[in-house]
Every structure is written in structure tokens, then in C-alpha cells.
């Protein structure tokens, strides 16, 4: 095995992105979140704003579609009328994620249904980070300087569209189901640095051959 991939799904305010960045520093590997959108933009020539509009969220016309109509791998040509559809933009990102998983470089991927996209890859560790609502509210208030009421609204809204996005592209799977992941961690109880240590230790135990090189 040449590389390993860590996917991190996270509840809004749980510190998942912060944990991913700390983990990347500890393991000396890159962490991709918005970078996936920038790669997709460069590859297709579409403005990155197009990908930001559907970043782990569905547009209204897509929400109305039946999840059974979703294709999992097919990327259509730029000349076709649905090139900028939600589904095709997802497939473009999924293709990039698979390319990263098949490369020689280890990395962390935050969100983007990466755990599902890479579910059949042997070199992947998938993690879900969550925390109690009160901890998430305090985190959002401190990070974004918003009121408690606004923090609650942002958490409800963000978690809802992430859940809908995951359900749609995984054909009905529940985003928060622990069975989807190698591990789920409560960042409020374990601590963010504790989460980093646990994930790093697990990865080193699961892929000892990578760390012996």
C-alpha cells in the first residue's frame, strides 16, 4: 500500500475541520476541503462559485428528484446541457476524490460524501465528528461572533442541507449513522486534540506498512 486516505464527516460546530487540519499537521499530509472545489474548477474551466453553490447542498430543482435516478460515477461532456447540473458537479468532485485515493499521496478529505465515494477502497479510514448542541453553539458563537439564536439557526440549516446532500448521493443513507464510519467521536468529550491522537493512532495501527517506509 502506497498511501492512505482519511475522510472526515462532521456536524456543524463540532470542530471537524479544525480537527482535520490539526491531524494533517500531525501526520504531515495535505487536507482537502474547499481545495476539492478549486481542483474541480481548474479541471472543468467552470468558476469555483458554481461548485461553491452546491458544496454539500442541493439546489431546489435537484431536491425534487428521486434519489434512485442518481448515477454514481458518470461524468458528462462539457457540450451536454446538464454539464452544470448538481449531479454532474458531484460526479466531477467524486472523480477527483477517487483520483486522490488512487495516487501515491496520503491525504485527508473533509465532507463531500468522501466516505461513501471511497467505501470500497481498502486504504481509507472514515471518521464522523459530532458534539452536543450546546458545545456546537458555543463553538460557532466564538468562531463567527454571532448570537446564540443565530448559532442555533446556522447549525440547524447547515446540518439539514448536509444531511439531505448525503442522503441524495448515497441513495438514502443516513449521514449520522455510525455504521457508515470506522469511528465516530464526540469532540466535546474527547477534546479536539484527543480526537487527533485517536485517529492518528488508529491509522498507524491499520496501515503500519505505510509508516515503516
Question: What can be said about this structure in brief?
Answer:
The chain is an alpha/beta fold.
Explain what the structure shows.
There is one protein chain. Strands 2-3-1-4-5 form a five-stranded parallel beta sheet, with helices on both faces. The model has no long low-confidence stretch (mean pLDDT 90). The N and C termini lie close together (11 Å). The radius of gyration is 17 Å and the shape is globular. With 213 residues, it is of the alpha/beta class. It has helices at residues 16-27, 34-44, 48-53, 60-63, 86-101, 114-117, 133-144, 148-169, 187-190, 192-206, 208-211; strands spanning 5-10, 31-32, 107-110, 124-130, 183-186.
- For the residues shown, what is the average pLDDT? 90
* N-to-C series of helices and strands: EHEHHHHEHEHHEHHH
Whole-angstrom Rg: 17 Å
How many DSSP-defined strands? 5
The largest sheet is: 5 strands, parallel
Number of helices in the DSSP assignment: 11
Query: End-to-end span in angstroms?
Result: 11 Å
> In order across it, which strands form the biggest sheet?
2-3-1-4-5
Based on helices, strands and strand pairing, what is the structural class? alpha/beta
Amino acid at each position: 500500500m502506497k498511501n492512505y486516505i482519511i475522510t472526515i464527516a462532521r456536524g456543524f460546530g463540532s470542530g471537524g475541520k479544525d480537527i482535520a487540519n490539526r491531524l494533517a499537521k500531525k501526520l504531515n499530509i495535505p487536507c482537502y476541503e474547499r481545495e476539492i472545489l478549486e481542483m474541480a474548477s481548474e479541471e472543468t474551466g467552470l468558476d469555483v462559485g458554481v461548485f461553491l453553490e452546491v458544496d454539500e447542498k442541493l439546489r431546489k430543482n435537484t431536491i425534487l428528484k428521486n434519489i434512485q435516478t442518481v448515477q454514481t460515477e458518470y461524468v458528462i461532456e462539457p457540450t451536454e446541457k446538464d454539464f452544470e447540473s448538481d449531479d454532474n458537479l458531484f460526479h466531477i468532485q467524486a472523480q477527483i476524490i477517487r483520483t486522490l485515493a488512487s495516487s501515491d499521496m496520503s491525504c485527508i478529505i473533509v465532507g463531500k460524501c468522501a466516505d461513501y465515494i471511497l467505501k470500497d477502497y481498502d486504504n481509507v479510514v472514515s471518521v464522523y465528528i459530532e458534539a452536543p448542541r450546546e458545545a456546537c453553539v458555543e463553538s460557532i458563537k466564538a468562531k463567527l461572533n454571532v448570537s446564540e439564536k443565530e448559532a442555533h439557526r446556522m447549525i440547524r440549516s447547515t446540518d439539514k442541507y448536509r444531511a439531505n446532500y448525503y442522503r441524495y448521493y448515497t441513495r438514502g443513507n443516513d449521514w449520522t449513522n455510525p455504521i457508515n464510519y470506522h469511528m465516530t467521536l464526540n469532540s466535546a468529550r474527547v477534546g479536539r486534540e484527543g480526537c487527533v491522537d485517536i485517529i492518528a493512532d488508529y491509522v498507524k495501527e491499520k496501515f503500519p506498512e505505510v509508516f515503516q517506509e
